[in-house]
Amino acid sequence: MAQKVIIKNGDRIERILLERGVQRHELHRWYAKLRQVNPHIGNLDRIRAGDPVLIPDQLNEVITEHVIWENAFSAIPQALRLPWNGNMNIMLSGGSDTIDSMALRVFDGTVHSTLSPNTLRAVFLANNLSARAYLNGDRLPPFKPFVGVPVMLKPYDVHYWKNEITVFGDTLNQLDPTTRELFQEAGPQNALSLAEIIALLSDDGFAVGADDILRGASYGLAGVSGYAASSNMALSSVRQTAQRIFTDAVNRFGPQVATSKKAAHLRQVDQFIRSHQAFPGLMRQVQELPNHLFSSIPKKIVPPVNSTVPHHVARHFRKEYFQAFQNQSASRYMNTIAHQLKGRVSTWSKAGRFGTWYVPAVLGLYNVATASPEMRMRTLFEEGFGVLGGAVGTHLGMTAGLGIAFVLGLGPFGLFIAVFVCATAGGILLYESGKWFGGSVLHDGGLQLMDRYYNSLDNFFESCGL
Amino acid sequence: MMVDLIIFSFGLSGCFWIIYVFYTAIRIQWFIVKRYEIETDLMDTIAFKEHATFTRSLPPFFSSAMYTAHLLMCLWGWPIFYNKKPFRDIDNPAKVLSHFSKDELRRVRMYGIGGAILILHMIVAYILKYTRPVLYG
Q1: Minimal Cα distance from A409: which residue of B?
Q2: Which residues in chain B have Cβ-Cβ distances shorter than 8 Å to A460?
Q3: Residue A465, exposed/middle/buried by CB under 10 A (0-12, 13-18, 19+)?
């Protein structure tokens, strides 16, 4: 089992390995293994006191991802695990950036910049799942967006931003090269400050150079980032108020009534919520939600007033808002849908069932009842073995069809056609054969044998010498 | 007369094999659908993930035919199918066969034998029907 070693002053990986009995000629292989299981260490020769290093017992030991990352994040101090309430910093990688250099840039100017570079690297890797593809020491691709928040985000936020950052990446790629480079070099906060200064100067009547105005366009991007933060804050306040009202409802009626789906209980809880003192506040918060979270039908026809928020960004946030409802029980809305359908679906399914089974069955039974006894007996033999043969033929045909399709290595569509054709052919062929076996041979042949050659079964057995 | 007796026996035999194969197919269906779809990860093999993708959507009687065919390929057809595209993730047929008991594999074998006999009957029946239509049409 791999062992976690906390590095002390003066420790070196080489010495730790040699003390553990590793031969010198094996060191390079152990280094490769350690690089693999310690992704938070950029350079094994540059470790600091306090860095946790995972050392396997054997070279071929398999260590799970969970253990590797748990060790990697174990050195991150509590101060870097606090929730992040500021704007989401998005950083663009430069042409020569590596994971380590990006991690240093994230913490540049913060009080935590003096922490071990390996800890900073661990925070960066924790926040950016996409960066884990570049652990082999290669440079990061230029103009790739990364989360540049100087704290360790919660797992939910990490996964949220993993998808979200692609949206911002698209937006950044639409900017002109000058603005993109400004953002890349100065980072989001400085770009925003610069843009604000330019905007203030312009408002006060100062003439700002064309290049500066171009750079000022990056304000748009930072604005989008701010929009995202404001949306999250607005939604969280709505959720908090709603949660408070719901807690009061639970205290008043008990959890069973508060979560009940019965109409009487729903009405009771609804009345309580509407009369709650926080309800007007909740409604006001909902009304004040950023416009891009909702789009009514007239708004969909014309483009949004705020042109800095592209459609796909707005669509993304709208989706996020409605995802808030996904934890509700499906029976809530399924009951409503069923009520609105008013049994129309079951009417059609009943009609289908009657048309397919009951009506032909009644017609068939009528024909059987009105037929002569001889015809009835012959139909029983002929159609009985015909239907049975058809079923067996379809079954065998499908078996053969799959064999043919697999020999030819056909894909889903070709295989479906092959199986369908073979099943149909098998069904028809054996249906006809079954009819012949049961009707012409077994029934008619039997009667002929009985009538023409034998007077009775005894006669038949006598002639057979039995 | 002897010919009539032989034809009658042949018809009787055809009817017997129809009933027998139908019965065997139903007996196989009772275990094979559950085994492939619920109890094992055989549906995650390439044969059903990339080729016979619609099998799960078929009614049990028909999907059991597909599973029976797959099993027969591993049981008898391995020399033919071992290098075929749908079996590229199965290097040993035991990976499939180990999920089935001896008795279950025997039923599948009997289905294969019964099916072959029935198809032979069918071929003879069609030959008789079309060569001597006056007597046996």
Answers
A1: B85
A2: none
A3: exposed
CA distance A405 to chain B (A): 9
DSSP three-state, residue A6:
strand
Chain A residues touching B29 at Cβ < 8 A: none
User: If you search the block for the tokens 């849908």, which residue do you land on?
Assistant: A337
**Chain B residues close to A454, C-beta within 8 Å:** none
- Inspect the interface and report whether the beta carbons of A409 and B85 lie closer than 8 Å: yes
A-B C-beta contacts closer than 8 Å: 130
- Closest to B69 (Cβ–Cβ): which among A391, A402, A446? A402
Tell me whether A406 touches chain B (CB under 8 Å): yes
| Residues in chain B closer than 8 A to A417 (CB atoms) | none
* CA gap A90, B20 in Å, rounded: 71
pTM value surpassing 0.80? no
pLDDT in tens, chain A (466 residues): 788 889 988 888 888 998 888 888 888 889 889 988 999 998 888 888 889 999 998 888 888 888 898 899 988 988 888 877 777 778 888 777 889 888 888 888 788 888 888 999 999 999 998 888 888 777 888 778 888 888 888 888 888 888 878 877 777 777 767 667 767 666 666 666 666 666 666 666 555 543 444 444 444 444 444 555 555 666 677 777 887 888 888 888 888 887 777 778 888 888 888 888 888 887 777 666 655 554 443 333 444 444 455 666 666 666 665 555 555 566 666 666 666 676 666 777 788 888 888 898 999 889 888 888 888 888 889 999 999 999 999 999 999 999 999 999 999 999 999 999 999 999 999 999 999 999 888 888 777 776 665 566 676 667 666 6
Q: Which amino acid is at A239?
A: R
CA atoms within 13 A on the CB side of B102: 0
State how far the Cα of B137 lies from the Cα of B130, in Å rounded to an integer. Answer: 7
B69/A400 Cβ within 8 A: yes
| Cβ of residue A415 closer than 8 Å to a chain B Cβ | yes
CB contact under 8 A, B54 and A416: yes
Residues A31 and A72 sit within 8 Å (Cβ to Cβ): no
Q: How far is B21 from chain A (nearest CA, A)?
A: 7
Contact criterion met (CB below 8 Å) for A214 and A179 = yes
Dihedral of the alpha carbons of A130, A132, A137, A143, in degrees to the nearest 10: 10
Closest CA to A288 of A327, A333, A230, A328: A230
Closest CA to A175 of A308, A313, A316: A308
Q: Which residues of B72-90 are buried (b: 16+ CB within 10 A; e: fewer)?
A: bbbbebbeebeebbbbeeb
**A402 at interface of B, judged by CB pairs closer than 8 A:** yes
Alpha-carbon distance of B110 to B75, in angstroms, equals 12
